[in-house]
Write a structure and sequence with these properties.
Residues 13-135 form the VOC domain. This is VOC domain-containing protein. InterPro entries: Glyas_Bleomycin-R_OHBP_Dase, Glyas_Fos-R_dOase_dom, VOC_core. The chain is α/β, with parallel strands linked by helices and 170 residues long. It has 2 domains: 13-70, 2,3-Dihydroxybiphenyl 1,2-Dioxygenase, domain 1; 72-161, 2,3-Dihydroxybiphenyl 1,2-Dioxygenase, domain 1. 21% of the residues lie in helices and 28% in strands. It is built from 3 helices and 8 strands; from the N terminus they run E-H-E-E-E-E-H-E-E-E-H. The protein has helices at residues 24-34, 91-100, 156-169; strands spanning 16-21, 38-40, 50-55, 58-64, 83-87, 106-112, 115-123, 129-133. A hairpin with a 2-residue loop joins strand 3 and strand 4. The chain starts with 15 loop residues before the first strand and ends with a helix.
Length: 170
């Protein structure tokens, strides 16, 4: 695998993440009413309970656990645990809403070269970690190339300024 660069599999985007849940109703409520996902039609050929939701260009596929009573729920909010992260418009608004909804969360701050990224971490009903951040403040810089790349609106100008330079070098 060493030496492989680029996009050898021809990937185009993230389609969905799949999460197991103890209660479909609780999880649908959380992803729909807290995070703003929209339930969408799920193929009827599946022989197990679940739900599909879509939002922000990604799908969430919820899979009902057969024996939910045997699954422990994580209580500790650990930013180093596996999680999915969402960009937001206002960290203050997110914090206010979580406080009003009485959802426990932990805050973190990342700083790199004077650029600050605020993060809020909390759990879904099954203990899966959710991060909300203003991560597009921090440019994504590949280690193999010196061109800053990011899908954020804030860094889009950097990319547009660097593209002519890169094209002229080719």
């Amino acid at each position: 695998m060493e030496g492989i660069t680029g996009n050898p599999l021809g990937l185009t985007s993230v389609n969905h993440i799949s999460l197991v849940c103890k209660s479909l109703d609780e999880s649908i409520n959380f992803y729909q009413n807290i995070l703003g996902f929209i339930p969408v039609k799920r193929p009827g050929s599946f022989d197990f309970s679940g739900a599909w939701l879509f939002g922000y260009g990604i799908g969430i596929h919820l899979l009902q656990i057969v024996n939910p009573e045997n699954v422990p729920i994580k209580k500790e909010i650990n930013p180093k645990d596996k999680h999915i992260s969402f960009q937001c418009e206002s960290m203050g608004l997110v914090q206010k809403c979580l406080e009003e909804m009485k959802i426990d969360f932990a805050c973190a701050l990342v700083e790199e070269n004077g650029v600050k990224v605020n993060q809020l971490f909390f759990h879904d009903p099954d203990g899966f970690m959710i991060e909300i951040c203003n991560c597009d403040n921090l440019p994504v810089i590949p280690l193999v190339d010196d061109m800053a790349r990011s899908c954020s609106r804030l860094n889009h100008e950097i990319i547009q300024q660097q593209i002519p330079q890169v094209v002229n070098q080719i």
